[in-house]
């Protein structure tokens, strides 16, 4: 049987470490790290994500400051708010919940965030730092993927890793992190030919396609490690909504280890957001 990598348990460890770091900063006379969360509009999924992030911040002792803006807020107002938050020394992290309404240029907004406060790791400076292996803030989901992998893999050198999906949020950054660890990384996507054959050569598969149960048992070689990043909401026969990953996990008994959906990558993403906020606060303190 494949080992199920428990993302909830690992996330709880990361959160506990983060809370301890916050307590240490405060005990030393510093300000509790502050995370500003900007939500424009009332997309229901975004509201849920923001609510979860803020609840976890509270548990870890991070001050979270919510900025809820109406869906028709002009772009200039959003940019002006980011300028104010950039200049506020009590704010260490700024998160703009995506997607933004159509009239707002998301790239322009993300580029406006001070790279030192960019806890999502989407600013071009942080993207550049990641690709040159020179520090910076790393996007939360790829950071969480690496922690999950680190719980079952000691040495990545020479391992064949197949990443499915080439998005800026998951596929590309996770590939960069794996390259830094000297894995041999193949990045695949919707146009990749013979994907099952490519996947079958992998020691590690990171599936981030958003395609339910794309990765079947016969795609996975015995003993491979499989990380399932995918989250797709589907309605079952009884009309209940459930979350489905990119992997047919029930067909992967021959794998060495797999992450479940839910309870794998998802909890790690929020935990890493909090840990990035503390990292940003610590760096600001010594800057
Ligand atoms: P995206 O839509 O930006 O990119 C998807 C990528 O997968 C693209 O490169 C596309 O070419 C590729 N792809 C799509 N279908 C494919 C197929 N059939 N075969 C091969 N490649 C295929 O998505 P994203 O933002 O990177 O997210 C990917 C998935 O991960 C989504 O399900 C998303 O909800 C999930 N996600 C989860 C977390 C988390 O915290 N667990 C965080 C971010 C994203």
Automatic annotation (TrEMBL):
Function summary: Catalyzes the oxidation of 5,10-methylenetetrahydrofolate to 5,10-methenyltetrahydrofolate and then the hydrolysis of 5,10-methenyltetrahydrofolate to 10-formyltetrahydrofolate.
Keyword terms, alphabetized: Amino-acid biosynthesis, Histidine biosynthesis, Hydrolase, Methionine biosynthesis, Multifunctional enzyme, NADP, One-carbon metabolism, Oxidoreductase, Purine biosynthesis
Region forming the signal peptide: none
Name the UniProt record assigns to this protein: Bifunctional protein FolD
UniProt EC number: 1.5.1.5, 3.5.4.9
UniProt domain Tetrahydrofolate dehydrogenase/cyclohydrolase NAD(P)-binding: residue ranges: 139-284
The Tetrahydrofolate dehydrogenase/cyclohydrolase catalytic domain, residue ranges: 5-120
Keyword Hydrolase among UniProt keywords: yes
Protein family: Belongs to the tetrahydrofolate dehydrogenase/cyclohydrolase family.
Organism classification: Bacteria, Pseudomonadati, Pseudomonadota, Alphaproteobacteria, Sphingomonadales
HAMAP family associated with the record: THF_DHG_CYH
